[in-house]
């Protein structure tokens, strides 16, 4: 995680949280993980795809008029090449984010990221603020997915669709290789959404969660 954020980045994020919370009783918690799930099925898909590519290439070459290649198309050689390429495909699917995204269906990624976001919400005890106004901005970096989870005090005033602009700001930052700026923009927009929906300060409002970037395993 230190590769994604410098000390200056973390301070800028803390300042942005403080500013976004200035006019609201909400507790905004940005939380970043590298990846929400190991996605073992993606590894299997990568392995099978690699093996199938070699087997298909061998089948085509056997019918092609290239006699010089025929000695290398014996069943044993093809099997060894297919197994080796399958292994490489499995490793690549688990370690190369664009390949992982391509080999994992959107609904599978969505379920994994949402479940990890719920775990982070509980871990940070955002259900336990004075006015039930905790908000989690959850970012799963490798999947390019963001979840906004808000407690009851926010949900009663802000429709879930209002967070789309917040997630879009953060996602654009990831895609442009500017994650910190994406988070800063998303936090700022979060504060604006709260203001637009009248989630103001209360006399008993306190800063119940540290204004800082949080991260977890994954």
Separation, N- and C-terminal Cα atoms: 10 Å
- Structural class by SSE content: alpha/beta
Helical fraction equals: 40-55%
Can you list the strand order of the major beta sheet? 3-2-1-4
Number of beta-strand segments: 4
In percent terms, what proportion of residues is strand? 5-15%
Low-confidence stretches: none
Largest sheet: 4 strands, mixed
Rg measurement, Å: 23 Å
Question: What is CATH's topology name of the largest domain?
Answer: Diaminopimelate Epimerase, Chain A, domain 1
CATH architecture annotation name of the largest domain: Roll
| Shape, per Cα inertia axes | elongated
**Count of helical segments?**
8
Question: What is the N-to-C succession of helices and strands?
Answer: HEHHHHEEHHHE
């Amino acid at each position: 995680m230190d590769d994604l954020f410098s000390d200056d980045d973390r301070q800028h994020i803390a300042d942005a949280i403080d500013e976004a919370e200035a006019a609201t009783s909400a507790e905004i918690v940005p939380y970043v993980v590298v990846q929400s799930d190991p996605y073992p099925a993606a590894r299997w898909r990568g392995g099978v795809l690699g093996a199938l590519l070699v087997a298909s290439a061998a089948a085509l070459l056997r019918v092609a008029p290239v006699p010089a290649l025929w000695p290398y198309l014996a069943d044993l050689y093809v099997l060894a090449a297919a197994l080796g390429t399958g292994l490489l495909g499995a490793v690549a699917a688990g370690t190369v984010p664009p390949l992982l995204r391509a080999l994992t269906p959107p609904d599978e990624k969505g379920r994994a990221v949402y479940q990890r976001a719920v775990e982070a919400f509980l871990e940070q005890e955002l259900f336990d603020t004075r006015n039930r106004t905790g908000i989690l901005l959850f970012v799963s970096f490798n999947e390019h997915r963001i979840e906004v989870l808000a407690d009851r005090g926010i949900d009663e005033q802000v429709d879930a669709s209002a967070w789309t602009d917040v997630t879009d700001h953060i996602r654009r930052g990831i895609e442009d290789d500017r994650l910190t700026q994406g988070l800063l923009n998303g936090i700022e927009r979060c504060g604006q959404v709260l203001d637009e929906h009248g989630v103001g300060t209360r006399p008993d409002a306190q800063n119940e969660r540290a204004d800082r970037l949080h991260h977890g395993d994954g």
